[in-house]
């Protein structure tokens, strides 16, 4: 079913006042944002899309002097705020505008809890509405003004379907006794704060085919990525827009040839890179150095707890018939092992879990930490998968 996707651009004080008056009467709104991160080093929110009761608003914070009026609506516990991948949008809106959020729902998290085949918004729209969303503007430059009509249409469609999708998901979550778990997780997401952003962490682990390089090449690759990051930060450009990964590899392969480096990036950058290559930042990087395990700095007792907690995680996954994406990561498990939690309050202090998880996973976590049996504390847990594949 195709839903009406006309939109109202809010880019001046008068249109902002009218939109706020209308939205203040809503009992639920759908929210999305478009940011500049695909183009800039320091991402900023460029559009805020809000849909409610068939009206679709596109707020333009670049042209509006002040969007703080939205804050009262976001904090209103009587208004449900529906997102897809709420954590990203909420952190961005908190970072740029210091908003607070109360009473949210997240269709991304819900899709995982319902064990849907995919979790993207485009998949959910097609799954529930049999409509294919265009991806044409997915990598648009949202900072440019004026925006194209196709960009605005694309942005509006990100919120048009959220309310109806959430209604269907809410029904299924309730039917499968997963609703309380979902809403506890939503409350945790709403409370998340953005970490201060000082720059990207330069890392080789996810660089394509890094294991195929020699140890000397890996060191040169690391140093090239550092130079790229520094230049990206100075110019406020996304790092790959300075030099993409193919060009980075080309630089590494030709690191001894100044003429070739000059052909690739110009004389100024070539001179700087040659100096960097002649004075590498450290020794050659061996394969074993690439993937540091999260337990390397754990004591022997902490390592034992870590291993028991990993087994606990496997047990929960088996009982609930679920994948890793709904379970604590190795990094989180290592933090729990270090803390050596003795009570549910200790687990709360870590701020890793929603209250539902504290109450429903907490007792078994505490037993696992102490090396005691915990299977009897898991009998009430609801399976995620309806049946084994």
Through-space gap between termini: 30 Å
Indicate how many domains the architecture comprises.
3
Number of strands: 6
Structural class: alpha/beta
CATH domain class name of the largest domain: Alpha Beta
Assign the CATH superfamily of the largest domain.
Answer: Ribonuclease H-like superfamily/Ribonuclease H
**Biggest β-sheet: strands ordered side by side in the sheet:** 1-4-3-2-5-6
Overall shape: it is flat
Number of helices: 18
Poorly predicted runs are none
Computed Rg: 24 Å
CATH architecture of the largest domain, by name, is 2-Layer Sandwich
User: What fold name stands as the CATH topology of the largest domain?
Assistant: Nucleotidyltransferase, domain 5
What proportion of the residues is helical, as a percent range?
40-55%
The H-and-E topology, N to C, reads as EHEEEHEHEHHHHHHHHHHHHHHH
Report the sheet-strand fraction: 5-15%
Largest sheet: 6 strands, mixed
Mean pLDDT reading: 94
Pfam family, one: DNA_pol_A_exo1
GO molecular function: 3'-5'-RNA exonuclease activity; nucleotide binding; single-stranded RNA binding
Protein name: Ribonuclease D
Key attributes of the depicted protein:
50% helix; alpha/beta; 389 residues; 6 strands; DNA polymerase, domain 1; Nucleotidyltransferase, domain 5; flat; 3'-5'-RNA exonuclease activity; Ribonuclease D
């Amino acid at each position: 079913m195709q839903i009406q996707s006309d939109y109202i651009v809010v880019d001046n004080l008068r249109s902002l006042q009218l939109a706020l008056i209308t939205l203040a009467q809503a009992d639920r709104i759908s929210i999305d944002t478009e940011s500049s991160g695909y183009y800039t080093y320091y991402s900023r929110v460029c559009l805020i899309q809000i849909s409610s009761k068939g009206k679709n608003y596109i707020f333009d914070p670049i042209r509006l002097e002040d969007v703080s009026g939205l804050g009262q609506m976001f904090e209103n516990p009587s208004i449900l705020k529906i997102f897809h991948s709420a954590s990203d949008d909420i952190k961005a809106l908190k970072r740029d505008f210091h908003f607070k959020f109360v009473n949210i729902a997240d269709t991304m998290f819900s899709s995982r809890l319902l064990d849907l085949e995919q979790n993207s918004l485009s998949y959910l729209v097609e799954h529930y509405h049999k409509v294919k969303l265009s991806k044409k503007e997915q990598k648009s430059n949202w900072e440019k003004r004026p925006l194209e009509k196709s960009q605005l249409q694309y942005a509006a469609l990100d919120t048009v379907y959220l309310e109806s999708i959430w209604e269907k998901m809410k029904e299924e979550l309730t039917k499968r006794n997963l609703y309380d778990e979902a809403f506890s997780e939503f409350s945790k997401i709403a409370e998340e704060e953005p970490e201060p952003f000082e720059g990207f962490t330069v890392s080789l682990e996810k660089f394509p085919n890094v294991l195929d390089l020699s140890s000397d090449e890996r060191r040169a690759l690391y140093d090239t990525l550092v130079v790229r990051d520094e230049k990206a930060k100075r110019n406020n450009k996304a790092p790959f827009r300075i030099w993409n990964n193919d060009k980075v590899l080309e630089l590494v392969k030709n690191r001894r040839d100044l003429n070739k480096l000059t052909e690739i990036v110009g004389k100024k950058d070539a001179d700087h890179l040659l100096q960097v290559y002649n004075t590498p930042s450290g020794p050659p990087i061996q394969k074993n150095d690439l993937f540091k395990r999260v337990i390397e700095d754990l004591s022997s007792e902490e390592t034992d707890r870590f291993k028991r907690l990993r087994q606990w995680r496997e047990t929960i996954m088996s009982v609930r018939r679920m994948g890793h994406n709904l379970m604590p990561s190795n990094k989180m498990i290592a933090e729990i092992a270090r803390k050596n939690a003795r009570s549910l309050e200790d687990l709360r202090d870590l701020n890793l879990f929603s209250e539902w998880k504290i109450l429903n996973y907490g007792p078994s976590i505490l037993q696992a930490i102490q090396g005691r049996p915990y299977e009897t504390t898991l009998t009430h847990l609801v399976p995620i998968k309806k049946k084994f594949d």
